[in-house]
Amino acid sequence: MASALINVPKKARRGDIIEIKTLMSHIMETGYRHTASGQVVPRDIVTSFNCRYNGEEIFRADLFPAIAANPFISFFTVATESGKFDFEWIGDNGFSATASASISVE
Amino acid sequence: MKRDGTIAIAMLLVAAGAASLAAREIATSAGLGTSKPIGTGERRSGYAFMAPDTQAIQDDDTANPGMLWVLDGQALWKKKVGAANKSCADCHDDASSSMKGVAARYPAFDTALGRPVNLEGRINLCRARRQEAPSLAYESRDLLALTAFVAEQSRGMAIEPETAPELQPFVAKGRDFFMKRQGQLNLGCTNCHDDNWDKRLAGSAVTQAMATGYPLYRLEWQSLGSLQRRLRNCITGMRAQSYDYGAPELVDLELYLMTRARGMPIETPAVRP
User: Fold this and answer.
1) Distance of CA A19 to the CA centre of its chain
2) In chain B, which residues have their Cβ closer than 8 Å to the Cβ of A27?
3) For a FRET experiment, which of B90, B96, B128, B233 has its CA 20 to 30 Å from that of B34?
4) Distance (Å, rounded) from C-alpha B43 to C-alpha B41?
5) Cα angle vertex A24, ends A19, A27, to 5°?
6) Which residue from A5, A27, A74 is facing B67, i.e. has the nearest CB?
7) What is the DSSP secondary structure assignment for residue B129, as one 8-state letter?
8) Rounded to an integer, what distance in angstroms lies between the CA atom of residue A47 and that of residue B186?
9) How high is the mean pLDDT of chain B?
């Protein structure tokens, strides 16, 4: 169950600076921990995140083992036109999750 | 060892000589103070002890990681399971009305068992009795998710434990547990949470043990966790032998904690540092 929480304003005026907040459900296992019997717990993290605004990439981030579980990524952009934000998370063990949110710009 | 002890006593004397306030603090932290209950007006949720940054995480539903479990719980609520092939929703329908206020009065008395059960226990009883499904393990993602989803329906409502007379012996047992000194450090819950809640322990706020937001997301855990996880941590911290998840002793303690927090609002899913 990979669930995500997205917060994008539903409406904005053209030229407004808007904040986008994303929260992805993920354990972010570092790969540096050991079990009681000494075996390494294999790394399982989200390695990359990107956001497209009407198809055009506006934000990208690489994630590393030091990033906390359930990574929360927030960033700003300028509302230029009505449309859709597409979010994508990619990670270890073939992890892939997407989400989207729409905005109307007046 | 003996030399260290002498130095510690000398330091105590210096502190006592320097200021009577300091002396009183040392006496209290050494457990020499008398336990007195926290006044109703003095009660504060763990939220009030947090930094504004951490409070902001809890306040924003799209930043609060606990909401991820609530979302999962919402999906599980509608999922058919067990030999009976029933979902929670098949009996309870819309949780936003049927589960409203439930977390505010739990742990509640179960007549068949003759003792109180907490929310997690109730969910597993429902699975056994109605869905004919195996119990969910304590602290498993699914049980935390369902518990958080049910408890979130009571967010903002005042905690109102049942006052049924058959519950009272269990409240008393929970209270005894809270007051009793135990473990290698010879501490009772009350020594921190009644006597020293306004102080700090290793940089962290001690707090009043008002269990208003469970299951909650603890940044230290990097996960949602139940009240029993917190209790077991605390008991281990006193270097006492903890009880297993779901043990009646822990449920009694949960029950007593809820009576202490009577009237305070439910915050589930809360965030703590």
Assistant:
1) 14
2) 222
3) B233
4) 6
5) 145
6) A5
7) I
8) 47
9) 89
**Which secondary structure element, helix H or strand E, spans residue B122, and what is its range?**
helix B119-126
Closest residue in chain A to residue B218, using alpha carbons only: A69
Between CA B228 and CA B246 the distance in angstroms is 8
Question: Token digits for A94?
Answer: 């073939």
Quote the CA–CA distance of A46 and B179 in Å, as a whole number: 45
Which of A1, A7, A23 shows the shortest C-beta gap to B75? A1
Place of tokens 């369902």: B146
Q: Is the pTM of this model over 0.90?
A: no
Residue A87 identity (one-letter amino acid): F
CA-CA distance, A26 to A73, in Å (whole number)?
13
Q: Residue B141: closest CA among chain A residues belongs to which residue?
A: A1
Q: Which of A68, A70, A74 sits opposite B68 (nearest CB)?
A: A70
Amino acid code (one letter) for B147: T
ipTM for the predicted complex comes to: 0.90
Contact, A18 vs A31, CB < 8 A? no
With beta carbons less than 8 A apart as the criterion, state whether B84 and B130 touch: yes
What pLDDT, on the 0 to 100 scale, is given for residue B231?
97
Condensed to tens digits (0 to 9), the pLDDT of residues B106-132 reads: 999 999 999 999 999 999 999 999 999
CB A58 within 8 A of CB A52: yes
Mean pLDDT value of segment A15-19: 95
Here the tokens at position B28 are 């209290």
B53 touches chain A (CB under 8 A): no
* Helix (H) / strand (E) containing B8: helix B2-18
For B30-54, write each residue's pLDDT tens digit.
444 456 788 888 999 999 999 999 9
Which single residue is written with the structure tokens 């996960």?
B223
Bridge partners of residue A48, in order along the sequence: A62, A90
Chain centroid, CA A5 distance in Å: 9
Q: How far apart are CA A41 and CA B250, in angstroms?
A: 31
Residue found by looking up tokens 């202490």 in the block: B260
Helix axes B141-152, B119-126, angle to 10 degrees: 110
Please measure the distance between the N-terminal and C-terminal CA atoms of chain B and give it in whole angstroms.
36
